[in-house]
Amino acid sequence: MTWDWEYTGQFLPDMLSGLRITVVATLVGYALALVLGLVWTLLRRSPSRIVSQITRWVMEFIRSTPLLVQLFFIFYVFPEFGLTLGPLSAGILGLGIHYSTYTAEVYRAGIADVPRGQWEACTALNLPKRRVWQDVVLPQAVRKVIPTLGNYLIAMFKDSPLLFGITVLELLGVAYQEGARSFKTLEPLTTIAVLFIVVSIVSSIAVRRLERRYATY
Amino acid sequence: MGDVLDSYRLLVQGAWITIQLTVYGSALALVLALVFGIAGTSRHRAVRVLNRVYVEFFRGSPALVLMYWFFYSLPNLGLELVPMFAGVLALGLNVGAYGAEVVRGAIQSVPRAQYEATVALNFRPAQRLRRVLLPQAIALMLPPFGNLLIELMKGTALVSLITIADLTFRAQQIRTNTGETVWTFTTILVMYFVIAQLLQLSVRYAERRVDRMLGRRPSRDKAGLATVAASAPGGGTAG
User: Fold this and answer.
1) ipTM for the complex?
2) What gap in Å lies between CA A176 and CA A189, rounded to an integer?
3) What CATH superfamily classification does B2-230 receive?
4) Nearest residue in chain A measured CA to CA from B227
5) Share of chain B above pLDDT 90, in %
6) CB contact under 8 A, A148 and B229
7) Shortest Cα distance, chain B CAs vs residue A156, angstroms
8) Closest partner residue to B233 among A155, A186, A211, by Cβ?
């Protein structure tokens, strides 16, 4: 069997709608992950041991169970509790929650990486808590975590095909349907695989640029 | 609840398949990671290019897309794979690419003087790796390998979409047969969690063994940003 270019040209426009869903799911999910990650980090730093320990185990649980099963859980189990979501919203919620445990870990490590001397200096200068965070800790932490957060954006983009498992017609879904319709599975699936690889390589080059730009040593 | 208890046999069968996939997948990933990781530290440009091509290609393509490609597209080229093989191949190749970056980074961060010493002592390249560089690099590799192992175990859930009867597949089966969703999915989430914790314990044990082997004190501190960044499943950060 040889590659059919004419056929490839025919289904390409359909792929665009899949690409749109993939991009929307990734970006909205990522925004959710960034915000939710912040919530986890704050809960984790709570002065109450119970709160911080519970948060720790909940995060550990979410992080060490498969995203696909979590998506099924949101899609099939939530309706039992009266929360019925469409496939795409369920998918975005799943991606966001799953990746928020990763972003929380990045935030935590970023804050922990601020040298001890900086904290001590703040105490010595008697800075109010607000200024310690706003002017000393966060500016240093944020700068350091940006490349890593970029990596997680790429990772999330690559996990977006899982949404097909809960019937979202993103890139993989469109490609699979196209293949099932025409009985030619080689062209559509290969096309999206190449697309994913190209996007990943280009964006990881961008992340490497960010890394160099924000390097602090 | 009762329905789930009746279907527990199905779940146990599924869990067994999940564990098998994890073992085979990680064995393949480990071999690929070592081969291509070491290739990435080679003096020869051609060998290094081989490492880059493998890493960029298989790190860039999502495991699920790879799996679909092996399962649905390869038959078009006249190559039919058993589902289990397609699943293990996709997972192994994908995680192996992340692993290769870990191996390369770890070998390159062994102090340069160690390498120079092996040259001064007239070691052959194979001896340098086996006697000096790898034993020290392994201590650096283990923590990220632990994370990758968990990622691979989580990745095995994807095989349920290419008709392999793993834990997730069984849960879907029970859902369609009995309509019992809450307990089924809660149960398998907990089962995955337990498997992940067991894997993590064994990696911790291996870390302690390696630390003792090298005569180092086990490091108790939490992962710094560098470690978190190194195990990010996104683009390249190592090296």
Assistant:
1) 0.89
2) 7
3) MetI-like (1.10.3720.10)
4) A109
5) 72
6) yes
7) 8
8) A155
Nearest residue of A to residue B156, measured between CA atoms: A66
Number of domains in chain A: 1
pLDDT in tens, B161-202: 999 999 999 999 999 888 888 999 999 999 999 999 999 999
| Spatial contact of B81 and B62, defined as CB atoms under 8 Å apart | no
Q: How confident is the model over A10-20, as pLDDT tens digits?
A: 888 888 889 99
Burial of A150 (0-12, 13-18, 19+ CB in 10 A): buried
Q: Hey, are the CB atoms on A207 and B160 less than 8 Å from each other?
A: no
CATH code of A177's domain: 1.10.3720.10
Domain hosting residue A85, numbered range: 5-213
> Cβ contacts (< 8 Å) between B155 and chain A: which residues?
66
How close A172 comes to chain B (CA, Å)?
7
* Closest to A164 (Cα-Cα) out of B232, B103, B64: B64
Tokens representing residue B20 in the block: 């098998």
pLDDT of residue B234: 47
Task: Determine which of A146-150, B1-5, B12-16, B179-183 has the lowest per-residue pLDDT on average.
Answer: B1-5
Nearest to B153 by CA among B108, B118, B202: B202
Tell me the pLDDT tens digit for each residue of A21-37. 999 999 999 999 999 99
User: What are the b/e assignments for B33-59, b being 16+ CB within 10 Å?
Assistant: bbbbbbbbbeeeeeeeebbeebbbbbb
Mean of per-residue pLDDT scores for chain B: 88
DSSP three-state, residue A26? helix
Low-confidence ranges of chain A (pLDDT < 50): none
